[in-house]
Every structure is written in structure tokens, then in C-alpha cells.
């Protein structure tokens, strides 16, 4: 049997508070509407609660004011004996209500606007004072909404977690076997963040790609991106700790690419905007990548000669396995200590492979260490795949000699394993 969850208990408490407020108001208004609004606005997280609440407020006021306007018109010009005319007016005004909700960018609130409008003009038009009902309806709805926001937004103080940092890999932690974020993971992450859990995301992707995927998740800590080549301060909206491939290595690499007639995508940051330079698209896989990624906002794709490029956070190459493996061996033979390379098979296109080239100074553990220092965290949880550089983190290399480091390898077969592990560790700290 399913257990009684927190949302159910919150809904019950919200309804009870609505009754208490009703009694304190001297039983003024209609408590039913407060309770309904409270139940509807109790969502899985505060963000969704605010969204539902805002829609309900807008819908209630739009429907309420139009309803009172129609009542005033009918009482002034239409006799109660002409009910058909009244119904025609109400039916036509529904068009106005829906149109205004669309015009005012309130599409999601159009339903509740119509409900409130018809409850005033149809169900309560014959009341002694229908305007009193309309006003009370709006007041009662507001009471229910604010009660729900209060209940959903209040958390017990949790001082034990102020110094704990959870660093979670997007690709090797949060993603499921299909390479996606499940609805459960998204909801649970929102809840943990709203409870002030210190969660930082690390990813192989660029910051703009990650943020577009996590757009509804209220991340606060810097995003560790592109395998540690940079991090992105979400609050300040700026790139930090960028580690560029040095100029001499860039010149050698681009010469080798040109001689081998291999295209590459060069990622760099200019004026806090990610720019991706490329020369030609040589095959369908590159074209597919380009057309998919160029739609991401805050990222510019520029086609031009790249032989004189000097700065690169990352060089991305995608080519057939036979050709790319030869290139990879050639680059390894350079024995360039200033670069770090990641060679991997393309999971979508099995005949192709991917090569990523970074500065040797680009590493996730360095950024994590700086975040630990800046935020004065003393306990670190790293939830990712088996990463030798992360595993080598020691107390001595971190902020203080008493800094605790916990590394957890996620079981990919376990649904939502990473976020469940974060929640488990977070609760243990209580």
C-alpha cells in the first residue's frame, strides 16, 4: 500500500488552517472556496505552488470583475423576467473572458476565470447581494492560496546541512538509462533545493546546454561544466575559472586537423557568451549536431577559418572510428603535457567516435575545491561515475584537515539512484 506522503499531510493542514481563519473572521465568506484553493495550490514543490497560485489569483480576479460588470449591466438594463437574454449575455461574455485571458498571457488561467465568472453570474445572480458573494469569493480564494504557500514554503530549521556540499554528475548520476532526467528526479531535486540542500551539478556539457535542460530547477551553486574546463555562476550569469588550451598547443592541433582534413568545433567564451567556431561540416553527424545545438540560446555558432584561433575551452571532434582513432594516436604521440584528451564512442552513431580536448589544468576537483573554500563547506559528497581524479581527493588537499570527503558511485540500473542517494545522505545529516 502507498504511504501517506508529505503532500497529503500538507493538504490536510492547509484545509484545517482555512477553517481556523474562517472562524476567526466570524464565519464571514465561504470557507469552501478557501479550502479548494488551498488543496489545489499544495504542489510537490514551492515553485509549482507559486505557479498554480499565481494562475488562480489572475483567473479569480479576471472572472470576478467581469462577472460583477455583467451583473451590474443586467440589473440596470435587463429585467429578471427575460432569462433567455441574460443567458445569451453570459454565453457571449464567455468569449470575452477567454479572449482576455489569452490577450493578457493568462491561457493557463482561462479555465478558473470562466468558473468564477459563471459562479457569480449563474449560481449567485439571484442572491440578495451578489456583489458580496463575488468579493468574498475573491477574498476566500486569496486566503486559501496564501495558506497553501505558507504551508508549502515553511521548513523546519536545518542548521546541520549548512556546511555539506553535494556534487552530482548530470551524465553519470542524474540521467537515467535513456540519457534523460526523470520526472521524479526533477521534483525531488526541487524539493531538496527548497529545503536548502547545497547541490552543485557537474557535467560534460556546456553551461548553456545544462541550464536549458534544468531550466525549471532553482540551482544556486556554480555549475561545473565541460569536464572542469570552466564553471558558471548562475546568480551572476558569468563564466568563471576558464581554463584555455595554450596558444602553442592550439597551433599544433589545428595544423594536424587541417592536414588530416578533419573539422572541429572550438568552444570559447567572449564577453560572457559561449561561441563555437567551426570551418566546414563534413558529414551528416556533424550537421545533425550543429542543427540540434545551434537552437540553444546564449550560444553562437560561427562558421569561419579556425587556423588562427588562440583560445579554446574545448575542442570537439566527431569522425568515423577508423579515421579518428588514427588521429588520436597521432595526438598521443605528441606527448603534450598541456592538454587532456577524452576519446569515446558515439552512442547514437555507432560508426563514429568523439574526441574532446581540454587544457590539462581543466579538472573538476580543482573547481570543487575552490567552491568548498569560498562557501566554507566542510563535508563533501561526490555522486558520479568512477573518476580517478575525484577519488584521489583527500582531506589534506581540501580546505581543512578535517574536511570529510564521501564518494558514491551510482548504480545506473537503479531508477533515480543519484537523487535518492542525495536525499538519503541529506536526511542522515539531521
How far do the termini sit from each other?
27 Å
CATH topology heading of the largest domain: Rossmann fold
Give the name of the CATH superfamily of the largest domain: HAD superfamily/HAD-like
* Assigned CATH class of the largest domain: Alpha Beta
Which term fits the overall shape? elongated
Give a short account of the largest sheet.
6 strands, mixed
| Corresponding CATH architecture of the largest domain | 3-Layer(aba) Sandwich
Percent of residues in helical segments? 40-55%
- The poorly predicted ranges are 394-402
Tally of helical runs = 15
Total domain modules: 3
Q: How much strand?
A: 15-25%
In spatial order, strands of the major sheet run 8-7-6-9-11-10
Transmembrane segments: 59-78, 84-102, 109-126
Keywords: Membrane, Transmembrane, Transmembrane helix
Protein name: Integral membrane bound transporter domain-containing protein
Domain Integral membrane bound transporter: 18-151
Amino acid at each position: 500500500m502507498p504511504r501517506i506522503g508529505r503532500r497529503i499531510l500538507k493538504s490536510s493542514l492547509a484545509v484545517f488552517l482555512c477553517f481556523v481563519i474562517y472562524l476567526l473572521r466570524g464565519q464571514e465568506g465561504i470557507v469552501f472556496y478557501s479550502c479548494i484553493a488551498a488543496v489545489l495550490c499544495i504542489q510537490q514543490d514551492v515553485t509549482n505552488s507559486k505557479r498554480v497560485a499565481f494562475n488562480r489569483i489572475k483567473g479569480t480576479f479576471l472572472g470576478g470583475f467581469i462577472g460583477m460588470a455583467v451583473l451590474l449591466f443586467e440589473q440596470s438594463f435587463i429585467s429578471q423576467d427575460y432569462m433567455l437574454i441574460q443567458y445569451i449575455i453570459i454565453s457571449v461574455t464567455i468569449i470575452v473572458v477567454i479572449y482576455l485571458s489569452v490577450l493578457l498571457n493568462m491561457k493557463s488561467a482561462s479555465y478558473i476565470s470562466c468558473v468564477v465568472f459563471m459562479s457569480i453570474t449563474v449560481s449567485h445572480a439571484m442572491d440578495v447581494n451578489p456583489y458580496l458573494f463575488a468579493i468574498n469569493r475573491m477574498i476566500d480564494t486569496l486566503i486559501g492560496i496564501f495558506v497553501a504557500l505558507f504551508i508549502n514554503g515553511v521548513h523546519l530549521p536545518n542548521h546541520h546541512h549548512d556546511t555539506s556540499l553535494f556534487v552530482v554528475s548530470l551524465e553519470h548520476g542524474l540521467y537515467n538509462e535513456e540519457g534523460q532526467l526523470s520526472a521524479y528526479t526533477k521534483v525531488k531535486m526541487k524539493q531538496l533545493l527548497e529545503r536548502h540542500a547545497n547541490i552543485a551539478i557537474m557535467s560534460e556539457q556546456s553551461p548553456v546546454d545544462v541550464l536549458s535542460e534544468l531550466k525549471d530547477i532553482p540551482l544556486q551553486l556554480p555549475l561545473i561544466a565541460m569536464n572542469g574546463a570552466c564553471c558558471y555562476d548562475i546568480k551572476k550569469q558569468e563564466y568563471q575559472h576558464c581554463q584555455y588550451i595554450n596558444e602553442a598547443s592550439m597551433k599544433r592541433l589545428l595544423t594536424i586537423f587541417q592536414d588530416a582534413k578533419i573539422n572541429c568545433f572550438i568552444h570559447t567564451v567572449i564577453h560572457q557568451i559561449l561561441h563555437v567556431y567551426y570551418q566546414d561540416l563534413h558529414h551528416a553527424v556533424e550537421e545533425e549536431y550543429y542543427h540540434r545545438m545551434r537552437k540553444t540560446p546564449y550560444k553562437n555558432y560561427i562558421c569561419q577559418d579556425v587556423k588562427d584561433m588562440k583560445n579554446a575551452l574545448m575542442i570537439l571532434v566527431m569522425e568515423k572510428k577508423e579515421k579518428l582513432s588514427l588521429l588520436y594516436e597521432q595526438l598521443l604521440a605528441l606527448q603534450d603535457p598541456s592538454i587532456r584528451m577524452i576519446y569515446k564512442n558515439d552512442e547514437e552513431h555507432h560508426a563514429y567516435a568523439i574526441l574532446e580536448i581540454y587544457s590539462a589544468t581543466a579538472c573538476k576537483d580543482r573547481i570543487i575545491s575552490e567552491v568548498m573554500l569560498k562557501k566554507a563547506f566542510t563535508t563533501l559528497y561526490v555522486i558520479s561515475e568512477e573518476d580517478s581524479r575525484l577519488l584521489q581527493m583527500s582531506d589534506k588537499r581540501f580546505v581543512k584537515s578535517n574536511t570529510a570527503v564521501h564518494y558514491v558511485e551510482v548504480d545506473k540500473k537503479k531508477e533515480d539512484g543519484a537523487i535518492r542517494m542525495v536525499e538519503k545522505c541529506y536526511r542522515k545529516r539531521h
